[in-house]
Amino acid sequence: MTVRMRQSLPAIAVLAVGVLVAAGLLYLQAGTSRFTDQSAERTAPTSESPVVEADEDTAAETADSGSPSSIAPAEAVVLDEVSDGDHWLGRGTMTSTSIEIFWAPVEAADSYRIYRVDNVSGFDSASIPLTADELRYEGTDTTYVDTAVDRGSFYTYIMEVQVGEEILARRWAQTMAEDDTVPPEPITGLSGERTDEGILLQWDPTDDDVEFSSYSVFLVEDEQLTYLGGGGDIEAVAFIDRDPADGPVTYAVQAVDFHDNRTEAVTITVDAS
User: Fold this and answer.
1) What's the CA dihedral at 66, 71, 72, 76 to 10 degrees?
2) What is the pTM of this model?
3) What are the DSSP calls for 202-256, one per residue?
4) Which helix (DSSP H) or strand (DSSP E) does residue 191 occupy?
5) Mind spelling out the 3-state secondary structure of 126-166?
6) Nearest to 267 by CA among 229, 223, 230, 232
7) pLDDT for 61-107, tens place per residue?
8) Tens digits of per-residue pLDDT, 113-149?
9) How far apart are CA 14 and CA 18, in angstroms?
10) Which of 254, 204, 200 is CA-nearest to residue 225?
């Protein structure tokens, strides 16, 4: 089997932003925040590195906690009845002195409440106690900028949406108060092969000067990038496409840091079986 590897042109990186917008919106509509730190489902790899599966659920998520901050809020979420809905909470620009968060407008909402708690992971946002001291914003706007932050600190913001007498399911996003404009180290060692389970991609782990976030994997067709999946686990340096085309298939991989700085995409073409 022959595998060809090449560095992408800057145009691929530009295209990636556009595709990431579409992929990010899909993720938001799936009911999780476009910026929530929820990684894609993983399976044990054929090597010692974790593997991220490319299935329908994975493709609907941007698994990186640093999803694009350039995505504009979606149109208002219309609820036929009070339910969990498709509303979301996301993080925007993060600096050492301020953190911006914004959320999907809900057509029937009477108000939004934004709480800030110390950064936590693996918690159940539906049951975590929220107090008046943690309330940072209450009103009808869909953007909030928190300027009472400490440089280098992580924070978790939790949103409640009031619709009449009901409160929609909570949404949350994790943030970091830091200045960061430098992307992670470039992707190296990208390889690909067809296996009995699909096309397996693997690459060397990379690093970031502030806080690493995730890898993103795309399908490249006619110079267009389609987001396949990724993960918020820095150990997940492998990905398997379980439903690849029969002919040559080209993929692109990026590393993304917590502030959405991205490496240039590295591409690889795996020949037909």
Assistant:
1) -80
2) 0.60
3) E------SS-EEEEEEEEEETTEEEEEEEES-TT--EEEESS--SS-EEEEEEEE
4) strand 191-195
5) CCCCCCHHHEEEEECCCEEEECCCCCCCEEEEEEEEEECCE
6) 223
7) 333 333 333 333 445 555 554 455 678 998 889 999 999 999 999 98
8) 999 998 666 677 888 889 999 999 999 999 999 999 9
9) 7
10) 254
